[in-house]
Amino acid sequence: MSEKVDVCIIGGGVVGLFCALEQAQKGKVVRVIDKLYNGSSRYNMGEIVLKGLPESIAEFAQFSREQWSHAVESFGKNLGYEERAVARFSLEKGHAEILRKAAEAEKAHGFDVNFIEGHDKVMEILGTDRISQDITAINYSEGEGAIDTAKALDGLRKMIIQAGVRIWGSDVVEKVEMDASRITKVVTDTGEECVAENYIIATGVWSGEFLKKINLSLPIRPARVHILQLIPTGSMPNAILSSGEKFGNIVIKSQVNGRALVMYTASMDPAQATWSTDQDPELIDWLRHQAGLMVTSLEHAQMRSVNVVTTAITPDKNPYIGQLEGVGNAYIAAGMNGKSYAYAAGAAKFLGALMRGEEHSFSDETVQALKPSATRFK
Fold this sequence. Notes:
alpha/beta, FAD/NAD(P)-binding domain, D-Amino Acid Oxidase, Chain A, domain 2
């Protein structure tokens, strides 16, 4: 079967779904092609934490979060967003001064973050006595966000279907046809053909494979991310906890069902630089142990599940969002460095403005920092 649409979106995770919604709301005929019907981003942590992000994309990250916080007002539907505080810390002795300096730098950039020192004060502000005695200082900020990822994806999917978006699930783009500097058609492994005026590539970690089909490449590498769901033995802080490790961060988020998610980002971990989603038993044991050292209610927590996902890491930790160089009708939103939920809504709005030739509110520095081109690293 062959069909013609205004916009063809390759990738049905949270980024692709937001792009589909934004285009449909502007009256466009949209097709979404997704190799996984449920979207791999269903199993992400869904935290939206702006502090600690590269300064070059601070205004973009802030804009993106605002889209989430206004979701009920904008879309008439709660997409699983809730405000959360964030506490960043380190179990390493002597790191309090590093945290203090980081807080001062973030305050200078306009972020509302406070340095809290003293174990008793830390327990008081986090509202639990189950915090490790070794946590004697934190950088604490309110007004961050967290997403119920399943609720977000299910809600977005229903909304785009109601808006008339067509979805091919469990399909993989096998072939891309081009005429000069424009994509003319994509063909899936089931023989379906989609002809569109514009194409949006939102394939996450698989973006590199798609770009090869049009003879393009962007610097991108994998990181395998483990996410544990545990049943704590006691109270948990409502704030998202984040601990800097040598090769990544450990993030702990309590859930409304009384469980807790524990994630290791592994962004710089050579042992996890793989596209494989196989579980690493040694890492899982280490992650459970570390979580127990941080929050005593997790020391003997029951393991409920383990999800392993891969995330795309870029050299400067900024995503690729914009028009592809040399391809007049192709746009990309990928390389999210594990922050797909934080950036998704903003990426959809930004790409929509670019495609329609509308003005946007971002500075030239921000646009350059997002530019999907290897030249930005020179």
